[in-house]
Amino acid sequence: MFIEKSAFKLAALALSASFSIANGALAEALPQVKFATSAGDFVVELEAQKAPKTAANFLQYVKDKHYDGTIFHRVIGNFMVQGGGFDAKYAEKPTRPPVAHEGRQALEKGLNNTPYTLAMARTGDPQSATAQFFINVKNNGFLDPVAIPPGDPVPRFEFRGQVYENTPRAELLNARQLFGYTVFGKVVSGMDVIDKIKATPTGSGGPFGSDVPKTPILINSATLVK
Question: Which CATH class for the 32-145+180-224 domain?
């Protein structure tokens, strides 16, 4: 009887553990989006837990078919490829209000502007990101948000040769040059397509004086696959 009870308890524990593992796996599953382009297909995985607002914003644009029919309008081979904002006639597509910048939170969780990572494009205003995104094609650490040391005021802080001493913390947290760019995903398949895009010849096009692919690279569709 003792052996039977022990065996039952062990079986129950094993079953409970298997459910816990399964539930954990489901909780950790990250959304993936497939881009079908005129240069080939690639898939990005979104860091929905590390950059939740940014990932949700991007997914909503995918669900709204915003990216379908847009182009990669800015390609710099030793830097990044950018798209998601203009159609094939260089008309800018309307967007929702900007998503809150959460680059520092993402940085703290290990997201950096490394090769094949996905980040939000924006203007000089850190809080201006809407639908446009870029894919890093090299290590672009200079685009990472800058972590602010503890203290208020911050006793000493140095950035690109400039030294800040006894500076109010809020002043550094809100300094535009320190925000960087929010990474929220990465390419998980089709890296060869990104390499093909980054190598395409560029010139002027539409309202842009440079860095526009001479042969347009069209996003035919962006669809949630996972």
Answer: mainly beta
